[in-house]
Design brief:
22% strand, 5 helices, alpha+beta
Length: 171
Amino acid sequence: MTVCTFRTAVPGDEELILSFIRALADYEHMSDQVVATPELLREWIFEKQKAEVIFAAAGGREVGFALFFHNFSTFLGRAGIYLEDLFVLPEERGKGYGEALLKRLARITVERGCGRLEWACLDWNTPSINFYIQKMCATPMDEWTTYRLTGERLKPVSYTHLRAHETVLDL
């Protein structure tokens, strides 16, 4: 592997982050779902600080990225890190950059005193699944199912009969 360095994304990296997001979406056959813009990334990553990005660089250019944020484990009583996306450019795969990014993120998790590092992987992504289990010794969470509300399904749920100050349901 060529020497790999890491850098934290800074304002001005929005287009680069978006290029990795689009490349990942293409790989996952989900390009039609990308609605992110540089402006949205600037707002949510840099201004509101709701996520962080690190890049892996080699040969003078960024070859991979990881986008992550803190979550919280009530059982552990402490924060964790959730890896939303990890992607290495196709022409740079097999050189250890993905492993280096994941190990760097594990180090960040430990340095921050977090209790765990978690992520999801598409069921069909066998090369990644094998890597996570065999190389990284990660444990699949087969007993858990992820649920999501988004867009037009989220809005009706948010408009319940409860007023903002009410906290108890009278059933």
